[in-house]
Structure formats: C-alpha cells, structure tokens
Amino acid sequence: MASPEPSAGGDAASQSAAVQPLQLPTPEEIKGQEMMNNCAVRSVLSGVMGGGLGVLMGLFFGALENPIMSEEMTARQQIVYQAKQMGRKSMSHAKTFAVMGLIFSAAECVVEKARAKHDITNSAVAGCVTGGALAAKGGPQATCIGCVGFGAFSVAIEKFMERHT
Predict the structure, then answer these.
(1) Which of 134, 133, 112, 131 is nearest to 121 (CA)?
(2) Long-range contact set of residues 21-30: C-beta below 8 Å, sequence gap at least 24
(3) DSSP secondary-structure letter at 9?
(4) pLDDT bracket for residue 92 (50, 70, 90)
(5) Is the pLDDT of residue 14 over 70?
(6) Long-range CB contacts (< 8 A, 24+ apart) of 51-57?
(7) How much is the pTM?
(8) What is the dihedral sign for C-alpha 30, 120, 109, 153?
(9) In the 8-state DSSP scheme, what is residue 24?
(10) pLDDT at position 32, please?
(11) Averaged over 30-43, what is the pLDDT?
C-alpha cells in the first residue's frame, strides 16, 4: 500500500525549496541603489575605472616597445628606458580611458533619463557623443567619423553582451 505521508527523499526538500519568502532590500541597499542612479556618481566611477584600465594597458603596451638603439645600451639603460616608456604610456592611456569612460557614462545616463527607456539606442547615442568628442580636435570630418565609428562599436558591444533583449 502507498503511504499518505511524504517520503523522506525528495518531496519535502522540493516543497521547501520551491517557496522562498520575499526579502525586502535593506535601507543600506536602497541608499546604494539611489546613489548609483545619480549620473554624476556613475560618470565619475566610470572615469576612475577607465583610468585604472588605461594604466594597466599602458604598462602592457609600454613593455612591448623596444628602444631603437638597444644594441648600444647597457642593461641598466634599457631597464630605465623601459620604465620611463611604461610610465609615459600608462599616463597617456589612463587619461584617454578616463575621459572616454566619463563621457560615455555621462551621455548614456543623461539620454536614458531623458528618454525614460533602457535600450540599445542609449548606447548608440552615447557612443556617438563620445566618439565625436574624442575626435573633435581633428575637425568636422573626424568628428563625424568618430561619432559613427564609436556609435557602431557601442551597438556591436551591446549586441555581443546581450544587455538589452
């Protein structure tokens, strides 16, 4: 005969795992979410993180550069030269990536708040603004090419990451 009691195997465990109580966010979590919804905070944070990435990339690319007169330099001179190159590359890349992250994040946040939508159009517009701003010194043609190029790159990255479905 079949027993009316649930077996000790899987039924009791599956019933308790199926129903979980709803946990409301703590006041600290709510304050953290409100802080991250601020465009200025989000932009500065992106700029700092972009600068950190730029430092790492500068160290990597600076280490790959060889001195032109390496045959005539002593080992100490080569090490000093490499260290200086890595420092210069790191600062250059850090500035570029910090500005890029700040502009992109600020533009995306402002467009998202203005449109009240979270979709791929925000990334396209932010990419266009960022690319145009970074290429502005080159004149109007460079600004347009930068806008189109960075906007297309932003859309491609968003599609690849599948953030917006």
Answers:
(1) 112
(2) none
(3) T
(4) very high
(5) no
(6) 51/94, 51/95, 51/97, 51/98, 51/101, 52/94, 53/97, 53/101, 54/90, 54/92, 54/93, 54/94, 54/95, 54/96, 54/97, 54/98, 55/90, 55/93, 55/94, 57/93, 57/97
(7) 0.76
(8) positive
(9) P
(10) 87
(11) 90
